[in-house]
Amino acid sequence: MLTRSSVMVCAAAALALAGCSPGDDGKAAEPTDETVVTATVSDAPRSPASPSATPTVSASSDASASPSASVPASASPSPVPVTGPDQKLVTMTVSGGFAGVNRQVVLRGDGTVRTTDRGQSAVRRTTAAQFTTLRTLLGDPALDDVPAFAIDMGSADKFQYTLQFDGRTVMTDRSTDAPALDRLIGALEKWLPTN
Q1: pLDDT, tens digit, for every residue of 88-101?
Q2: Cα distance between residue 80 and residue 89, in whole Å
Q3: Residues of 75-85 as b/e, b for ≥16 C-beta within 10 angstroms?
């Protein structure tokens, strides 16, 4: 028969061993979920009708209790706020390339996109969904880690992108790995007129 102290020892052992299998590198792997161990102990004497009644210990994965199961609110992108219709949320200038282009996209707080290419300007309005998507791309916390200057000086004829947003200027030729910036550039490029 298991006593209360033996159940507690079993529960402690289950907690200590939960998620402690070796990782791919042979070192101890970090658990991805917390393991919840429940123990049921009854102080009531066993009745003759249930001679096999014993305390039970079960381990189960409870993702809702795990801090790693949910992404902190600060890590997920949220749309940047709009302070007014004339606010410039982002300005992207594309220059260079073999033909020596100079094109610009400006997203404003009223949901309009102004494009300039070869001296010709056009203004178009985003849908509510497009506006939210662009503002969410601008709100990606990963943009904070993008360097202000990331251009391969050894390459020629690449497009150079200059983006102004959130009080900063970023220059890139997209030769470095910056997925959040690449997503933003890709979304803004769709507004440029096709030649």
Answers
A1: 999 999 998 888 89
A2: 8
A3: eebeebeeeee
